[in-house]
Amino acid sequence: MQPLASMATRRGLLLVLVVALCEVSALGRTPLWDGNIMMPTGEGHKGEEGTRWAILIAGSAGYWNYRHQADVCHAYQILKRGGLKDENIIVFMHDDIAYHPENPYPGTIINKPDGPDVYQGVPKDYTGSDVTVSNLYAAILGDKSAIEGGTGKVVDSGPNDHIFIYYSDHGGPGVLGMPNPPNLYADDFVGILKKKAAAGTFKELVIYLEACESGSIFEGLLPEGLNIYVTTASNAVESSWGTYCPGMYPSPPSEYGTCLGDLYSVAWMEDTEKENLKKETLEDQYLIVKSRTSNHNTYRSGSHVMQYGDLKIDVEELERYLGFDPANENVTKPGLSELSPVNSDIVTHVPQREADLVHLKHKFYNAKKGSLREANAASELAKTILHRRHLDDSVRLIGELLFAGEDALQKLGAVRPAGSVVVDDWACLKNMVRIFEASCGPLTQYGMKHMRAFANICNAGINSSRMSLASLEVCKISTSVDLGIWSPVTSGFSA
Ligand SMILES: *[C@@H]1O[C@H](CO)[C@@H](O)[C@H](O)[C@H]1NC(C)=O
Ligand SMILES: *[C@@H]1O[C@H](CO)[C@@H](O)[C@H](O)[C@H]1NC(C)=O
């Protein structure tokens, strides 16, 4: 515990740090689009066949990650209104948000400022420690016997069925987060999809995926011909974005203090809610979501929404996957929403990896001066920043040891051409992460950004004994994670 007296002086330093951080973080400045772009509409889909299934996954936990579970709850409400039955919707969420002590309205979750409660009625299929990648794979494959915990609900689908998978969380090159270890690796996930396709237990499968570097989950991995169509929030080399964040436009009510949604996710959901899904095709929605996620296709903020797999499926109406809400039966053409123009200097979104800092800063600034809450927020913020620094420094130093020479950092961060797989040997990648963690501590949500460095270590043919030595060497001198608030290492931040 830190004595409060020394906290006061530390707070001064912290403010400097926070201000510096605000300036470096690449917060987007986004004018909203105007005008309407008309999309072609597809032929009405004649005759229902098969069953619609959905799997919804929030990969995170913690109040600062409120938005991922909010996204998933919102998606459930949309599918429910679309006519899907609870027995066909499988929800994976940690479920620590609705009754989190920081939630100003216990028992509710919203996904946009002044939006409705989206928590009510959400099935608790896999919550807490049951939100695991092995349960997810078992649920996709319909393999009840492999499920551990939860309700045991799986996608028990047949050859005429349509399946929709939606995931929201942090990710990194080749990896998606899960609230319980291990994380999801792209090769395993695509392997499960291939297995499901080989079993012949769906007609078509659509995946919407929100995470940083989410394109890397499919690039060079997902073949055509499986009847699988994917869109991702970002390409393989960029962040995806949180939205409805404190201090941005539009802002959540101040008592929330956390981002309420993610940009790509709210783009597809808010579009879905106002369209006639018998008319809107997957392609229509892709174009609409792509526009909203990229600041009206300017890419001045936001990310590149991508398509993968069997693109020919995108002429199909969304109704096949998301059902149909009769309230929208008279909507004619899908189109970009008309939003009133706002000042282009207004910050509207935040990169996923900055969103927890936004939450902690909000908590710090809004706490009563001199309170324990203020001290705790300061401590959390400082620890978070220091831990990031520890991870960044450790990976960089390991890279310098392994790739001795002037271009060490370039080799560590090298990006393969678009369409290439991140790593050739996935077992090597997983092993390198384990070796790093053994010496340097958990990679954590933020550390997933360094997956490309580990991939490049593998791609360069560096073996595990060299990686072990380098990690040991670097992390015996690198400051450990639990630093308390201030330590000499922070001097690195003032520059
Ligand atoms: C759609 O239009 C028809 C005909 O005008 C009307 O009877 C119906 O109530 C409308 N549906 C909705 C949901 O507004
Ligand atoms: C790992 O690589 C180093 C350097 O290339 C080599 O000397 C060593 O024998 C290798 N170790 C193993 C276990 O292959």
UniProtKB/TrEMBL annotation:
Entry keyword annotation includes ATP-binding: no
GO CC aspect terms: vacuole
Cleavable signal peptide: 1-28
A Pfam family reported for this protein in Swiss-Prot or TrEMBL: Legum_prodom
Keywords: Disulfide bond, Glycoprotein, Hydrolase, Protease, Signal, Thiol protease
Entry-linked Gene3D superfamilies: 1.10.132.130, 3.40.50.1460
Name used for this protein in its record: Legumain prodomain domain-containing protein
